[in-house]
Design goal:
heterodimer; A: about 500 residues; mainly alpha; two-stranded antiparallel ribbon; 23 helices; about 75% helix; globular; B: about 140 residues; 2 domains; transmembrane (chain A); membrane (chain A); DUF112_TM (chain A)
Chain lengths: ~500, ~140
């Protein structure tokens, strides 16, 4: 009871409420601007959170995440341009509704669906997160090592089209994580005599570069000189009646389950949740042919599914230290900034903080109903009148100021720029960036765990495999790595058999 | 260049990077060196595997690295120039300059709109970072004034 009172006190403090509300508004705004996405926004936000209370920082992350997932639906419905990758499925029926003069109704359905999906996801996080953390409480260094390996293998193999590139990205991230003073021996590694490298590569500097610069260059490539006309942004009025809400409830329930399931799986993102939810709604519909032609169920399924992925992706991130997607990886980054190590111990050492963050995910999901209402959506839609080329230098300036204030070093600006350019080229080469980030986050934990396990066992490496739980996770990791190889081999065998 | 050629080069680059990292790690004592050596050799192995896989079964389809080389070059050059100018001109002067110059370089020809947007944006940045958060930012040659 004391804990609940403590959580309520900190979550409903003035600072936390202002952070959630302000960030939700900002999130919808960012989601509404094609080219900007929640990952970029949270990466830009992280440097500012150094001097903040952890719960205020996390409240801002929660607000931006949930808000931008809904915001992505605004241009998807009005212009057939998904504001975020997760809003692609929203365009299928959202834009045809706009063409029919039902833009306001489509936006209202998207708003309600986002709020319901996000709320269901937050409730799943609040119930399943602590259970998973309790189950993993007795893990030792060997188990932690294999959990880190499993997380990286799953992100490496499941993200992107080529598992080999994913694994390379994970190993690159682990290697980058070794730069700086070795925590256990104090030996400097890969510092090349540069004092600023002794502390290692700053996670946030790399994150801002990797996730903010490539979209900026993409915006510059598009060179949008006009923005949208005021006439195109005129919305009518719409009210959702009880009959319509009742008709959407089965879709909301189905999509929430799908989104939560996808969110828990490491490597799958909101776009996959939206597509699966959309397909399921279409399959279950008595009139599947109406999908893609402005069926409100399609908008509801896609938006509910992509928001139901949000908080669920935090379940493995908070309980095991394995993020379900890139935003969850950024949340881990936010925790590390405040000296908090994600994983089972987090729930026991900082229950008020974890509980507070889970409550913030719930509250910011409900806040969508407030900030995503018809009047607010009309205002947010206006940001699409801003020509894209004006956004390019603005984001560049925000990146620079955000990175500079972390350590007060100009060299960090160049590290960020180099990371961004590398990220841009690697993305074009279909090289996934999420495993690099995860390697950078989990690398130090993996190294310390394996070395501690070997110290405890006096150098006996079999200790890593003989404990039952670590053996199970090790086998699962190996199976995950071998799975794409077996699949490719099977595909080739079937191909050879075919006439 | 085709995707096959790009992936072969990427694989060889990573193999070289992994080998260099492993070789560098031989200079670190005990377990401090073993871990990065293992990682370096793994990266080299995976890189070679990617190069070989691309050689045998790589897609011979073109995969452009940039869609509009001119715009990318302009953005990267002005971005790098901006970072170089931050310690010289100070954060606010350099930022105001890039906020005006970059849209023009990308073909935006509405000077008043550009100036107003840059001024409004810089005012918000100043309010947040200097007014509200009181973060010290590079002042450049203005510090001598």
């Amino acid at each position: 009871m004391d804990l609940l009172t403590q959580i309520a006190g900190s979550v409903f403090s003035l600072g936390s409420v202002a952070a959630m509300l302000g960030a939700s508004l900002l999130g919808v705004l960012i989601g509404a601007l094609p080219g900007l996405n929640p990952v970029m926004a949270i990466a830009l936000l992280l440097p500012l959170t150094y001097s903040m209370e952890p719960l205020i920082a996390l409240g801002m992350v929660a607000g931006i995440y949930n808000g931008s997932m809904y915001g992505g639906a605004i241009p998807a419905i009005l212009m057939r341009i998904p504001g975020t990758p997760a809003a692609i499925a929203t365009t299928f029926d959202g834009f045809p509704m706009t063409q029919r003069g039902e833009a306001a109704r489509a936006l209202k359905i998207a708003c309600w669906s986002s709020a319901i999906g996000g709320t269901a996801s937050a409730l799943a996080l609040m119930t399943m997160g602590p259970l998973l953390a309790r189950a993993t409480l007795h893990f030792g260094p060997a188990e932690y090592f294999w959990i880190a390996m499993f997380g990286m293998a799953s992100i490496g193999v499941l993200v992107g089209d080529d598992a080999l590139k994913g694994l390379m990205a994970a190993v690159l991230g682990l290697l980058l994580g070794t730069v700086g003073l070795d925590n256990l021996s104090g030996i400097p590694r890969y510092t090349f005599g540069e004092p600023w490298l002794l502390g290692g590569l700053d996670l946030v500097v790399i994150l801002v570069g990797l996730y903010a610069l490539p979209p900026v260059i993409a915006l510059a490539e598009q060179a949008d000189l006009k923005g949208l006309s005021a006439a195109a942004l005129k919305l009518g009025r719409a009210r959702l009646g009880w009959a319509e809400i009742r008709g959407l409830i089965p879709t909301w329930l189905r999509s929430s389950f799908i989104g939560i399931g996808v969110g828990i799986l490491p490597g799958a993102g909101g776009n996959i949740a939206a597509f699966l939810s959309y397909s399921a709604a279409k399959s279950a519909s008595p009139d599947p042919d109406s999908f893609g032609k402005g069926n409100p169920q399609g908008v509801a399924a896609a938006e509910c599914g992509n928001n139901a992925d949000n908080a669920a992706s935090m379940i493995p991130a908070l309980a095991l230290g394995i993020p379900g997607n890139v935003v969850a990886a950024l949340v881990l980054g936010a925790l590390l900034i405040h000296g908090l190590q994600p994983g089972p111990q987090l729930f026991h050492q900082n229950p008020a903080l974890v509980g507070g963050f889970m409550a913030q995910m719930l509250i910011t999901s409900l806040l969508i109903l407030l900030v995503g209402g018809a009047a607010a959506t009309r205002v947010f839609a206006q940001v699409q009148r801003l020509p894209g080329v004006l956004m390019v230098p603005m984001i560049l300036v925000l990146m620079a100021v955000g990175v500079y204030v972390i350590n007060g070093r100009v060299v960090d600006l160049w590290v960020m720029f180099a990371a961004g350019l590398a990220g841009y080229v690697l993305e074009k080469l279909a090289f996934p960036l999420a495993p690099v980030v995860l390697g950078l986050i989990l690398g130090p934990m993996a190294e310390q765990s394996v070395r501690r396990a070997l110290l405890i066992s006096r150098g006996d490496a079999t200790e890593l495999l003989t404990r039952p739980i670590s053996a199970v996770i090790a086998v699962a990791t190996l199976a995950l790595i071998l799975w794409p190889i077996l699949r490719a081999w099977q595909r080739r065998r079937h191909g050879a058999k075919a006439p | 260049m085709t995707a096959r050629g790009q992936d072969m080069i990427l694989g060889l680059l990573f193999a070289g990077l992994g080998l260099a990292a492993a070789w560098q790690a031989t200079g670190y004592r005990g377990a401090s060196g073993t871990y990065p050596q293992v990682l370096g050799l793994s990266l080299a192995g995976l890189g070679l595997l990617l190069a070989l896989k691309s050689l045998w079964r790589g897609a011979r389809v073109p995969r452009p690295l940039v869609d509009h080389p001119g715009r990318v070059a302009v953005t990267v050059a002005i971005g790098a120039g901006y970072l170089a100018l931050v310690p010289v001109l100070g954060f606010y002067a350099a930022s105001a300059l890039v906020a005006v110059v970059l849209p023009v370089a990308l073909g935006f020809r509405r000077p008043l709109y550009t100036l107003l947007a840059a001024a409004g944006f810089m005012a918000v940045v100043w309010l947040v970072f200097t007014g509200l958060l009181a973060k010290p930012l590079p002042t450049g040659f203005w510090s001598g004034w």
